Amino acid sequence: MPTPPTTSTHATARAEDADAPLLAALRAGDEQAFATLVTRYHATLKRVARSYVSTDAVADDVVQETWLAVIGAIDRFEQRSTLKTWLFHILMNKAKTRGVRERRSVPFASLARAGEDAPTVSPDRFQREGDAWPGHWATPPRPWEDPERRLASLEAREYLRAAIAALPATQQAVLTLRDVEGLDSDEVCELLDLSAGNQRVILHRARARMRNELERYFDATG
Amino acid sequence: MTVDEIICRQFVEVATDYLEGAVRDEDLELVEEHLAMCDWCREYLHQIEATSAAVAEGASSAPPDATLQALVGAFRDRTRGDAPR
């Protein structure tokens, strides 16, 4: 299918859908293509769902409902967004419906704000009043040697996964959508009903906490 | 802001805003002056970027096999039921 001419940079970006090759196969009933799609997005969908509902079990239900809706609607998907964005919109509709049923749809933003003012780096790491340079590093970050190589091991990946799973649900959702799925901040704000500022605060808290975890891992593994 | 410099403890809280291009114009010069002077905060910023990249690489995890099989089964049933060819 030829790419329709467009002048919108947004639409141009959308045309680059990494999942586009899967779509024709999905429509043709290719089970392997569907398995690939599920494997690619299941964990992210679960993390995002979990930020809207109160338990893992309900989040599993929401993701299950999402996949069934995808199966039912894939022939009608019009490619006005990427397949990924479409998936997330279906998920959010299911999650919000369930969140309303659970009377838990509204508090997302207010929950996200809780603890917003707490420092993301331990105050112990900085010089105190009365020291030579108050507020400057006392225990600065030590450079990481070759992080890509050291994070390639199975053990390191397991550590990283566990650290992500231990983040508050809202931080997991934003971190996953931004840093794993590569959505831009506008898309994440729209999906999760967040202001731009709040989205950045949540993203920063998540990244800062993950940086602390990686630092601990690198220190412990020499 | 009326201060004429920022300190490390403040910089670490705006690292993501800086990467997102979201630091307010009136503060941007102070942030960049600090970064130019402070090796440690440059290292911190670098580590935040490295963390973001590490998360991107390490976060994927496949669904439980039973879940995957059940969903593929639903896909198969639907394909057979609705689209005979």
Describe this structure in words.
- The complex is a heterodimer of chains A (222) and B (85).
- Chain A is 63% helix and 0% strand.
- By secondary structure, chain A is mainly alpha-helical.
- Chain A has 2 domains: 15-101, Rna Polymerase Sigma Factor, Chain: A; 108-220, Winged helix-like DNA-binding domain superfamily/Winged helix DNA-binding domain (Arc Repressor Mutant, subunit A), CATH 1.10.10.
- The termini of chain A are far apart.
- The model of chain B has no long low-confidence stretch (mean pLDDT 88).
- Chain B has helices at residues 8-11, 15-19, 25-37, 39-58, 65-82.
- Chains A and B meet through helix 3, helix 4, helix 8, helix 9 and helix 11 of A and helix 1, helix 2, helix 4 and helix 5 of B.
CATH architecture of chain B: Orthogonal Bundle
Distance between the termini of chain A: 53 Å
Task: Report the top-level CATH class of the largest domain in chain A.
Answer: Mainly Alpha
Largest sheet of chain A: none
Overall number of domains of chain B? 1
Q: In summary, what is this structure?
A:
By secondary structure, chain A is mainly alpha-helical. Helix content of chain A is 63%, strand content 0%. The longest helix of chain B has 20 residues, at 39-58.
